[in-house]
Known about the structure:
1 helix; 14% helix; 41% strand; globular
Amino acid sequence: MTKKRLFAIxxxxxxxxxxxxxxxxxxxxxxxxxxxxxxxxxxxxxxxPNNPMAAYVTGRYTCPAGAEAHLFVSVKxxxxxxxxxxxxxxxxxxxxxAWLETHPTSDTWTCDGAWHTQTWxxxxxxxxxSYMPWDYGFGGALVPGQVYVQFCWDDDSGxxxxxxxxxxxxxAAY
Length: 174
């Protein structure tokens, strides 16, 4: 083999390793849970075909029986629709072209110590009937591609006895 060909093969292999490592790092979910609570976003984030400023996010969760809880669901995306690790950091909203989030009310979930699967509609479009005025995302239209989902539960009793959160990239589609 010539030195040029050997160099080209080594360079290609090194590039694949770097790209592969970056993809794995972006795909790894970040999560934490305590006190008998757990949560994770599952499936595809469904963009509302009639309003791309709204989406449906499904999560699987458990929280302690009778718990006072606070739920936060957030979907962020950059204009390209590609995964962007900057969305994982503090202040990441400055990089978004779309950020939908909600704090659903306690009548939309059940804390009984059992596992539940549920879907929430989130929007930051004030003209949408499911808009909640206490939500404060930056709006913007989602496009099919990758979104960064934050699905977080907290003990709302003031005791900080439990928490559960999951953050990960997920596919978004109509």
